[in-house]
From TrEMBL:
One GO BP: double-strand break repair via nonhomologous end joining
Transmembrane segments: none
Family: Belongs to the DNA repair metallo-beta-lactamase (DRMBL) family.
Listed GO CC annotations: nucleus
Stored PANTHER family: DNA CROSS-LINK REPAIR 1A PROTEIN, DNA CROSS-LINK REPAIR PROTEIN PSO2/SNM1-RELATED
Organism: Emiliania huxleyi
Residue ranges constituting the Metallo-beta-lactamase domain according to the UniProt record: 3-168
Positions of the UniProt region annotated as Disordered: 261-283
Sequence ranges of Gly residues compositional bias: 273-283
Name of the protein in question: Metallo-beta-lactamase domain-containing protein
Highest taxon of source: Eukaryota
Length: 283
């Protein structure tokens, strides 16, 4: 679950005109609110009467907001995967987060200074695996009413099918008690209607997160999950320090291990070595 802490929601200068997934921490001088996806731990504080600025999100997320909380369309600016928009001197590019339908990562570049930040929100850092399947899509209510609708569908097509199987999107499909880790269906009608809860949102594994940080080599990392205290944030940052570019951080031991200027004639500069590699976040 996303940590609810004001200091983690507002981006750092020169991008401090933006708040991400932080509607409980609105500030008078901020008019731009980025929303990575529509899960409830990221929309906390967002309601139909929100009028403190513009919400930037994907088209899918926008439809969810209008349908669930009644957020007026005039409050929303949509940006979808691969698109870029410019907002007050900042270029915002939407990237696929792979977490759930409509989920985004936001790449922000301050055009005047070149300062860049990537806000991932919840994301799955694996290579996308897509399978083309053909299914019959029908709206279903929850509980027994869903099975009644499935039974009615079976009656209309009983000459062709013996049972109806549906897949209900959920984030809570598995438990440790499930045999072999497989979800158990909700069965009605002597097995003629079956409903499986299938997780549709994805998070990254430890290995995937390590590879993701190593590929980007960021100079700073701001945890936003399980980061309620300064100690929590330091622990998470230390876990990824070896994969970051920390050579410019004078507060770390890495910065002091630099090559001395060459004694050769004409040499006038030194180069940093090591970066964050091998230090393990010791600081």
């Amino acid at each position: 679950m996303a940590t609810q802490h004001a200091s983690l929601k507002r981006l750092r200068p020169p991008l401090s005109g933006f708040i991400v997934d932080g509607f409980n921490f609105c500030e008078a001088d901020v008019r731009h609110y980025l929303l990575t996806h529509a899960h409830s731990d990221h929309t906390c504080g967002l309601h139909a009467s929100f009028d403190l600025g513009t919400v930037y999100c994907s088209s899918v997320t926008a439809r969810v907001l209008r349908a669930t909380i009644g957020l007026p369309e005039k409050r929303i600016t949509t940006i979808d995967v691969g698109q870029s928009i410019e907002v007050e001197g900042v270029q915002i590019t939407a990237l696929d987060a792979g977490h759930c339908p409509g989920s985004l990562m936001f790449l922000l570049e301050h055009l005047a200074t070149g300062h860049t930040a990537l806000h991932t929100g919840d994301m799955r850092a694996s290579q996308p695996i897509r399978e083309a399947v053909r299914v019959h899509v029908m709206p279903l209510s929850a509980g027994v009413e869903a099975h009644e609708a499935m039974g009615a569908l079976l009656q209309r097509h009983g000459e062709r099918y013996a049972a109806v199987v549906t897949f209900r999107p959920t984030g809570w499909a598995y438990s440790k008690s499930d045999e072999a880790g497989l979800p158990k269906p909700w069965v009605e009608g002597a097995g003629t209607t079956r409903m499986y809860g299938v997780p549709y949102s994805e998070h990254s594994s430890w290995e995937e997160l390590q590879a993701f940080v190593a590929a980007l080599r960021p100079r700073a990392l701001v945890p936003t999950v399980n980061a309620d205290t300064a100690r929590d944030r330091e622990r998470l940052q230390a876990a990824y320090a070896h994969a970051m570019d920390l050579a410019a951080d004078k507060g770390r031991l890495d910065w002091h291990f630099r090559r001395r200027p060459s004694s050769a004639v004409g040499a006038s500069s030194s180069s940093d070595i090591g970066g964050g590699g091998g230090t393990g976040g010791g600081g």
